[in-house]
From TrEMBL:
InterPro entries: NAD(P)-bd_dom_sf, SDR_fam, SDR_subfam_1. This is Mycofactocin-coupled SDR family oxidoreductase. The keyword Zinc does not apply. The lineage of its organism: Bacteria, Bacillati, Actinomycetota, Actinomycetes, Mycobacteriales. Keywords: NAD, Oxidoreductase. Pfam families: adh_short_C2. It comes from the Bacteria. Belongs to the short-chain dehydrogenases/reductases (SDR) family.
Length: 286
């Protein structure tokens, strides 16, 4: 216990799913939390986002660990909203040590498709950049930045035999690739200041994003209205290990390690928590 004792973490997408799990895990290990979530739906995204009451529940769970929390509704696409949320946290906690840029959407089969592309890129890529750069002026030596990528970012999509069929899905892959490059290059520039930056790449994770109609259709395009029962067996195709998905806590434990002093010399890492998914797609190379 206490692996991030006395630190303050800024977590985006904290209303539910991975974001809530990351915030709670850091709180369990001693961090105070600035938790933000948009708490409103996207017309172009085919599944609902977290609700204000979800963010309130996250805050309640954090407080039950004995840690403090500042929770705010904020859209990561809007840098001014993020700045206001971070300032509220600084007013309360007077420091910032950890950034977890988790907020993201999967615009698969979005309607209209080009709006799904825009909303996905602006949330996953621009939102990550906004969160990190909002926090950067307040970070000092020893700080840790963790961004959420995806195993999808590492997949070979060069043989797209049906372009335009899933514009939002391609936007998801593109956004995760570009944020990974951004964090890699940022880590290089921040290293002399003693600030670390890393990306975690999850495989299928058991959240509302995965357990959604658009994702079921992505895995079972042969069915008109696939259900969870129809689709879950196909989830296993993503991993080399005999699993269909991982749990948010599996990612949260990696976030905790990267945020802690145990990883004080780990930076620029593209850390895969993917059940061996990458192993199914690529030969060994350094």
């Amino acid at each position: 216990m206490g692996r991030v004792q006395g630190k303050v973490a800024f977590v985006t997408g904290a209303g539910r799913g991975q974001g809530r799990s990351h915030a709670l895990r850091l709180a369990e290990e001693g961090a105070d939390i600035i938790a933000v979530d948009v708490c409103s739906d996207f017309d172009s995204i085919g599944y609902p986002m977290a609700r204000p009451e979800d963010l309130e529940e996250t805050a309640d769970l954090i407080e039950k660990t004995g840690r403090r929390v500042v929770a705010a509704q904020a859209d990561v696409r809007d840098g001014a909203q993020l700045a206001q949320a971070v300032q509220r946290g600084l007013d309360q906690f007077s420091r910032l040590d950890i950034v977890v840029a988790q907020a993201g959407v999967a615009g698969m089969f979005g309607n209209p498709p080009l709006q799904a592309w825009r909303d996905t890129i602006e949330t996953n890529l621009i939102g990550t950049i906004n969160a990190i750069h909002t926090a950067l002026p307040h970070l000092t030596e020893g700080a840790s930045i963790v961004a959420t990528g995806s195993t999808a970012a590492l997949m070979d999509t060069s043989k797209n035999d049906n372009p335009g069929a899933d514009t939002g899905g391609m936007a998801y892959i593109t956004s995760k690739r570009l944020l990974s490059q951004f964090v890699h290059d940022l880590a290089t520039e921040l290293a002399p200041r003693g600030i670390r930056a890393n990306v975690i790449h999850p495989t299928n994770c058991n959240t509302d994003m995965l357990q959604s109609e658009p994702m079921y259709r992505a895995f079972r395009p042969d069915l008109e209205n696939p259900t969870r029962e129809d689709s879950e067996p196909l989830f296993a195709v993503q991993q080399a290990m005999p699993i269909r998905f991982i749990e948010p806590l599996d990612i949260s434990n990696a976030v905790l390690w990267l945020a802690s002093d145990e990883a004080r010399f780990v930076t620029g890492m593209q850390l895969r928590v993917d059940g061996g998914g990458y192993l199914k797609w690529y030969d060994y190379h350094i």
